[in-house]
Amino acid sequence: MSQIPAELKYVSSHEWLRTEADGTVTVGITDHAQELLGDVVFVELPKVGAHLAADEQAGVVESVKAASDVYCPVAGEILEVNAELEASPELANSDPYGAGWFFRMRPADAAALDGLMDAAAYASEIGA
């Protein structure tokens, strides 16, 4: 069964968000997503400095059996990408909520985070 940490926010495209102390957000794919994908072999991350809209494609994750787009859950600016994940894409499988994060961003509107799913809503969404 998938892990769904209670302190995170979620979107139906299977990305999670963690709000950091400075108001930025860290984004990755959920445990459920990595389970569906299987062994991740490649990730394409967004460009630092890019301004993305909510639900805009931010990257790609490829596994031995599928490829899937990674979406920007809220509008904002990309501040940092996880170079360690690019070098070791399997981190998306082994530690999806930790070392396997994809990017950090500054939301254009912090209130947009309020409309995202909590852990219980995401669990219901995936039938957990």
TrEMBL record:
Keywords, alphabetical: Lipoyl
GO biological process: glycine decarboxylation via glycine cleavage system; protein lipoylation
A Pfam entry, by short name: GCV_H
Cofactor field: (R)-lipoate
CDD domains: GCS_H
Family: Belongs to the GcvH family.
PANTHER family: GLYCINE CLEAVAGE SYSTEM H PROTEIN, GLYCINE CLEAVAGE SYSTEM H PROTEIN-RELATED
Protein name per Swiss-Prot or TrEMBL: Glycine cleavage system H protein
Organism whose genome encodes this protein: Gulbenkiania indica
Gene: gcvH
